[in-house]
Amino acid sequence: SLDTPGNANDVEVENGYAYVADGIRGGLQIIDVRDPTTPVTVSTFASQDRFSDVALSGDRAYLVDPGGRLRIADVSDPTDPISLSQLLIPSGASGIDVEGDLAVIAAGYSGIYVVDASDPASPFVAGSTHTRASLSSRAADVAVREHLAYVADGGSVTLGGLKVIDFSDPATPVVVGSTSNEFGLTGVALERDFAVTSDYFFANAAPIFNVGGPVPAFSAALNFSSAPSFRDDNGTGVAVRDGVVFLTAGRGSAALYPNQFVGDTGLHIGRYLDPQAISNLPPLVSLIEPADGEAVLERRLVTARGSATDDIRVVLVEFLVDGEVVHRDFSPPYEHTF
Predict the structure, then answer these.
(1) Is 243 left (phi over 0), alpha (psi -120 to 50) or beta?
(2) Is the dihedral of CA 223, 228, 233, 238 positive or negative?
(3) CA distance 218 to 206
(4) Residue 192 in contact with residue 219, Cβ under 8 Å?
(5) Is the backbone peptide bond immediately before 333 cis, with ω within 30 degrees of 0?
(6) How far apart are CA 68 and CA 80, in angstroms?
(7) Which end of the chain is more exposed for a tag (fewer CB within 10 A), N or C?
């Protein structure tokens, strides 16, 4: 674990680095997690900004804050992020996701905005729409896939469900699907045919929706209120990976507002999908260099390079000499010189 200077609101991980939207006094914290046992902060971007969410696309980081501002940074060198531009959003922004050159922003009472960032130095609002009837939107978070935006619409402690918005024409995004508003959705993450959400209406649970059809349908809720936590938290954010749900939550209504310091919070981890339902295929591992039977001169350094793939993910690659582990590599390229 690693303490950050602000209050961590969101995180994205790419190529061995974690990008943390660190709220008040934190800006964007970029942390080297290639060895997850020893995370190290390598840089800070815009430390005076109070970012509530971050999304990554290529070499760019997209950040929003509750004051209604989008900032785009070049993070091709994680140790030296560079500001590319900023854009004022007509209302506060709480969530963001990116597909290609389009950023979709969850903006509370205003619904969602679609921003064209094809020129990252000059982004502009291409279109917008309310998630409900005019001025009753409560867009808290958004996840996008194939020009569809899945919006958690329960912000500002006002009950709201999951809205689906087609933004294939950025100038005229349209609501094409919706659940009822008998939820309190604050966050959303996509995996396979499911949208997994954070919520404050259910008692410390993560509602799960099937989004494989034209209309999202409530499927189940992953309950965290029993053992081992025995807590009745309000969900504030969610991530999902390989059938595992990561739910951030806290006690009391104050936990539902970004950038407030709430002491009684926690992270809940649970599984919503059987690993066997995801895959039962073994990983594929091979030694690329040195080639089998290749001669190596005595007292010379040798670099071993390996390849590892898996249909879910590769956690680490171990290099062994005479049956003993001499090196562990947590991200490609997998190599060790000895």
Answers:
(1) left
(2) negative
(3) 11
(4) no
(5) yes
(6) 25
(7) N
Looking at residue 298, what is its pLDDT? Answer: 80
184 Cβ neighbours under 8 A, 6+ residues apart: 154, 157, 159, 160, 199, 200, 201, 202, 234
Nearest to 200 by CA among 270, 152, 134, 264: 152
Say if CB 152 and CB 97 are below 8 A apart. Answer: no
| Identity at 226, one-letter amino acid code | S
> What is the reported pTM?
0.79
Show the tokens assigned to 314.
């590769």
Separation of alpha carbons 114 and 320, rounded Å: 50
**One-letter-per-residue 3-state SS of 32-91:** ECCCCCCCEEEEEECCCCCECEEEEECCEEEEEECCCEEEEEECCCCCCCEEEEEEECCC
Tens digit of each residue's pLDDT (9 = 90 or more) over 294-306: 888 887 888 989 9
Residues facing residue 206 across a β-bridge = 222
Contact 187, 197 (CB under 8 A): yes
What would the pLDDT profile of 178-230 be if each residue is shown by its tens digit? 999 999 999 999 998 999 999 999 878 899 999 998 899 999 999 988 877 77
Whether the ω angle into residue 78 lies within 30 degrees of 0, i.e. cis, is no
Token digits of residue 185: 């959705």
Whole-number Å distance between alpha carbons of 62 and 217: 30
Tell me the chain's radius of gyration from C-alpha atoms: 22
